[in-house]
């Protein structure tokens, strides 16, 4: 009996340890050939657009067209369980409390020498109106449910006559210098915010639309200095360090300017798309396009998210890239910072799962 007892004493711990090993997710207890339900970024592999049962109960009885509170975040969480919703659109003087950005250099964070003092000096003026603090600052924060649309600049918008439909959204975000005047039939006439970086900002002041926020998406430390000169109406003595000409004046009061939370660049690049980390610094092929950054922002801050004007068709290199200029599609291949194919894979996931609605069907065409 003693040999048997000794054998059991040896086997029992091995069985327990084996069970713990299997249940930890390293292996599946039903066989060696088990495949994960999620891809390496953490997204559900099977994306059919169907609502999970709990969301069917929550949203199934709402009338068509009625805004669905929390819908985009709920669907995002269903296909990407690591998603957490509460991330503010803009930075405030207390940005250091966001540890996810205080540990990264631009464009993924705010880790810079003397950044506290520099940022506080400009954010004080940005968060005042008529001498009074703005307080909690979100776009249309009074709305219980926000429908947002992120406007891409793609030529796919041409002759679509979607302007009236676009104008129905509560929040309309436009990117860089994409014009509105003269294109209203296709791109709409309203603008809630214009997200840009210095090299992409509108340079002709008469082209700025009224009643919209000017939102800086900073990709380098120099961008914050540029914003300071715009706020304090200071002359730019040098444009060294910018990769092309920049605006010398922005016709906005400080209270109409904001800084986009750089966490959205960090999250889009490293978590959603899976671009090279490069020790948390800007490098070849690890910067998401501004459009994808804006979509990431909307997933955290909007109840429903739509896009229009997105999608690069690399099979037509001589087709127009944007709806408002003659630059050709081939120009996007010359960008060393973006990885268009990887980014497109991420956007296709969002469309297939119904997390976002693509009004112009440029992200995956008939493939969704």
Automatic annotation (TrEMBL):
The entry's cellular-component GO terms read: Golgi membrane
The stretch of residues making up the signal peptide is 1-18
Q: What is the protein's major site of localization?
A: Golgi
GO MF term set: lactosylceramide alpha-2,3-sialyltransferase activity
What InterPro entries does the record tag this protein with?
Answer: Glyco_trans_29, Glycosyltransferase_29, GT29-like_sf, Sialyl_trans
What is the recorded membrane topology of this protein? Single-pass type II membrane protein
Please list the coiled coil stretches. none
Q: Which Pfam families does the record cross-reference, listed alphabetically? A: Glyco_transf_29 (PF00777)
Q: List the disulfide bonds.
A: 148-302
User: What EC number is given for this enzyme?
Assistant: 2.4.3.9
Q: Which GO terms describe its biological process?
A: lipid metabolic process
Please provide the record's keywords in A-Z order: Disulfide bond, Glycoprotein, Glycosyltransferase, Golgi apparatus, Lipid metabolism, Membrane, Signal, Signal-anchor, Transferase, Transmembrane, Transmembrane helix
Compartments (UniProt record) = Golgi apparatus membrane
Under catalytic activity, the entry for this protein gives: ganglioside GA2 (d18:1(4E)/18:0) + CMP-N-acetyl-beta-neuraminate = ganglioside GM2 (d18:1(4E)/18:0) + CMP + H(+); ganglioside GA1 (d18:1(4E)/18:0) + CMP-N-acetyl-beta-neuraminate = ganglioside GM1 (d18:1(4E)/18:0) + CMP + H(+); a beta-D-Gal-(1->4)-beta-D-Glc-(1<->1)-Cer(d18:1(4E)) + CMP-N-acetyl-beta-neuraminate = a ganglioside GM3 (d18:1(4E)) + CMP + H(+); a beta-D-Gal-(1<->1')-ceramide + CMP-N-acetyl-beta-neuraminate = N-acetyl-alpha-neuraminosyl-(2->3)-beta-D-galactosyl-(1<->1')-ceramide + CMP + H(+)
Q: What does this protein do?
A: Transfers the sialyl group (N-acetyl-alpha-neuraminyl or NeuAc) from CMP-NeuAc to the non-reducing terminal galactose (Gal) of glycosphingolipids forming gangliosides (important molecules involved in the regulation of multiple cellular processes, including cell proliferation and differentiation, apoptosis, embryogenesis, development, and oncogenesis).
The entry sums up its family as follows: Belongs to the glycosyltransferase 29 family.
- Protein name per UniProt: Lactosylceramide alpha-2,3-sialyltransferase
Q: Which organism is it from?
A: Oncorhynchus kisutch (Coho salmon)
Organism lineage reads as:
Eukaryota, Metazoa, Chordata, Craniata, Vertebrata
Give the encoding gene's name.
ST3GAL3
């Amino acid at each position: 009996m003693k040999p048997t007892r000794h054998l059991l004493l040896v086997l029992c711990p091995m069985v327990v340890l084996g069970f713990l090993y299997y249940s930890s997710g390293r292996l599946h207890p039903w066989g060696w050939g088990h495949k994960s339900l999620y891809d390496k970024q953490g997204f559900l592999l099977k994306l059919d657009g169907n609502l999970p049962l709990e969301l069917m109960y929550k949203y199934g009885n709402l009338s068509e067209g009625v805004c669905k509170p929390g819908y985009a975040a709920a669907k995002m969480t269903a296909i990407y369980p690591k998603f957490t919703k509460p991330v503010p659109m803009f930075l405030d003087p207390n940005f250091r409390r966001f540890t996810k950005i205080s540990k990264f250099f631009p464009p993924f964070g705010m880790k810079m020498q003397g950044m506290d003092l520099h940022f506080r000096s400009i954010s004080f003026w940005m968060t005042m109106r008529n001498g009074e603090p703005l307080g909690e600052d979100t776009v249309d924060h009074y709305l219980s449910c926000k429908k947002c649309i992120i406007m891409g600049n793609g030529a796919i918008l041409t002759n679509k006559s979607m302007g009236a439909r676009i104008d129905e959204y509560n929040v309309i975000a436009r990117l860089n210098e994409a014009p509105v005047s003269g294109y209203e039939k296709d791109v709409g006439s309203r603008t809630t915010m214009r997200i840009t970086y210095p090299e992409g900002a509108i340079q002709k002041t008469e082209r700025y639309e009224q009643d919209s926020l000017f939102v800086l998406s900073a990709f380098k430390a120099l961008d914050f200095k540029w914003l300071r000169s715009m706020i304090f109406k200071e002359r730019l003595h040098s444009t060294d360090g910018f990769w092309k000409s920049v605006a010398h004046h922005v016709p906005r009061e400080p209270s109409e300017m904001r800084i986009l939370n750089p966490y959205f660049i960090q999250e889009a690049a490293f978590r959603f798309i899976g671009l090279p980390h490069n020790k948390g610094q800007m490098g070849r092929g690890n910067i998401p396009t501004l459009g994808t950054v804006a979509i990431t922002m909307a997933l955290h801050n909007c109840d429903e998210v739509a896009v229009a004007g997105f999608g690069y068709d690399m099979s037509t290199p001589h087709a127009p890239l944007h709806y408002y200029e003659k630059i050709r599609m081939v120009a996007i291949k010359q960008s060393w910072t973006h990885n268009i194919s990887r980014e497109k894979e991420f956007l296709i996931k969002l469309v297939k799962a119904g997390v976002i609605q693509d009004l112009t069907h440029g992200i995956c065409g008939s493939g969704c």
